Amino acid sequence: MNSRSPAARALTGMVATLLLGTAGAASAALDLGRYSLTSTFALPTSTASESSAITWNWDTQTLFVLGDEGEYITEVTTTGAVVGSMRLSGFSDTEALTYTGQGRFVIGEERLQDVYQLTYQANGTATRSALKSVSLGDTVGNIGLEGISYERSTGQFFTVKEKSPQAVQFGQIDFDAGTHTMTSLFTPNLGVLDLSDVQVLPSSGNLLVFSQESGRLLEVSRSGVVLSSLDFSAISSTTEGVTITADGTIFLTDETPNIYMLTAAPVPEPATYALMLCGVAAIGWAARRRLG
After folding, report:
1. Are 227 and 182 within 8 A, CB to CB?
2. Residue-averaged pLDDT of the chain
3. CA angle 52, 57, 58 (to 5 degrees)
4. DSSP string for residues in 245-284
């Protein structure tokens, strides 16, 4: 028989719930449900026409965007100011972009499914035929390589193929040798119509995956489980690129061209939970006194 009073039992339940909430907050992944649109920045059509890829440069603390016409790669601050751009020559269908450190980027062409390594130089020109490149697959129609992301801790790359079939791959790319070890990470069954970009999350190793046709941003485990999601369809129907900064701010880009900034509502700190527990304990003690 439980000899505790109803007030004591209620207190125990409330404390357990709060403790579980604290543990959940500590172990939770990114949780896209906490994110909302906070800013929108217009990009210049002269150098960011049909912007379809975006990446975060952790060395300069700036964003870089790439248009699918293969004309420019453009540097932008996190408040939307254009810093500069680099002209691209010989490209025609650039859909993928990631930063790999020391001023170097990897860009990918969708139909060819080839990736190229370049060093960014403002006001310079990168000519496709002069760059180191690796083929990641056969030439296909407008359903090929859509996104690429570099993981600093392992040196691995993650890529997504748009559809027919959708694919998520990972592995090493050796631009000096012209070889790669890319292989399937999981068979996508994410409930979206296409895959438009991918971004590996350094804190958890999970992936951000965006679907342009479904207008959804997904947080996905490396086994292909959807952990959280955000509906972006009411904001833009042409968004294709996604990246995340060191502080967890998410940036997306679309063909308008715009950059969208998403920030997360704060998670209560452990000290806040401690104060809440103290408050609950005080309430429980007062209730027991009244009942006793």
Report:
1. no
2. 88
3. 145
4. -TTS-EEEEETTTEEEEEEEPPPPPHHHHHHHHHHHHHHH
Q: From CA 244, how far away is CA 253, in angstroms rounded?
A: 12
What amino acid occupies position 192?
A: V
Distance CA 281, CA 229 (A): 36
The token pair that represents 166 in the structure block: 């959708």
**What amino acid occupies position 245?**
T
pLDDT in tens, 213-243: 999 999 999 999 999 999 999 999 999 999 9
Distance of alpha carbon 282 from alpha carbon 288, whole angstroms: 10
Cβ neighbours for 23, distance < 8 A, ≥ 6 positions apart: none
242-262 confidence digits (pLDDT tens):
999 999 999 999 999 999 999
- Interhelix angle for 270-291 vs 6-27, to 10°? 170
Task: Please check the confidence at residue 154 and state whether its pLDDT lies above 50.
Answer: yes
The residue type found at 8 is: A
Dmax over Cα atoms in the chain, in whole Å? 85
Q: What is the pLDDT of residue 267?
A: 73
